[in-house]
Write a structure and sequence with these properties.
The complex is a heterodimer of chains A (112) and B (116). Chain A contains no helices and eleven strands. With 112 residues, chain A is mainly β. In chain A, strands 2, 4, 5, 9, 10 and 11 form a six-stranded mixed beta sheet that branches. Chain A is globular, with a radius of gyration of 13 Å. Chain B contains no helices and eleven strands. Chain B is mainly beta. In chain B, the strands form two sheets. In chain B, strands 2, 4, 5, 6, 9, 10 and 11 form a seven-stranded mixed beta sheet that branches. Classes of the chains: A mainly beta (112), B mainly beta (116). At the A-B interface, strand 5 and strand 10 of A face strand 4, strand 5, strand 9 and strand 10 of B.
Chain lengths: 112, 116
Amino acid sequence: SQQGEEDPQALSIQEGENATMNCSYKTSINNLQWYRQNSGRGLVHLILIRSNEREKHSGRLRVTLDTSKKSSSLLITASRAADTASYFCATDGGNRDDKIIFGKGTRLHILP
Amino acid sequence: GAVVSQHPSRVICKSGTSVKIECRSLDFQATTMFWYRQFPKKSLMLMATSNEGSKATYEQGVEKDKFLINHASLTLSTLTVTSAHPEDSSFYICSARAGSSTDTQYFGPGTRLTVL
């Protein structure tokens, strides 16, 4: 299976701290994306990183990709209560496969 | 970004009935739409991929006669859960993509199905 595996599965940190979530996958990819999902809601696309990129920034988000280790990390700096959500990495299949497959997700809880 | 809508957002039905969920791309033409299912506190599992004008491709383990998918136009795909049972209760999310596999997928807000 190509499904990504996030760790940790759950993370609780104090507001203002940085949160780091990791994702590992099994097969070659074209792109890796990170999504946020608030409880019972749809997905919000956060950032896409291509296989030939190593790092990408967007506001308080920083994503790294290590294709040799088949892993990615999502760093949220200066966390806020509104960052409480589940975070998923998602990879495409690479080659001619165009499906996006989601990892199991990390449930992030920001403590006030 | 592009907008994808789903209707209804929430549906409760009796066991044995069929339920139709609509997924619409509002400001772009979606050649490909995807249907996902999500159980509480779990990840999204891809159910099927549908291309406009052709039959959907179902993932292994997904019953095509149970989950009927129609992608009749470039802006609309429907998922019909036939003869629903309580175990079909779940959060169903669609996504839509304009063109090639390098294009972004845009996700709908999801539909909460509860089968009594």
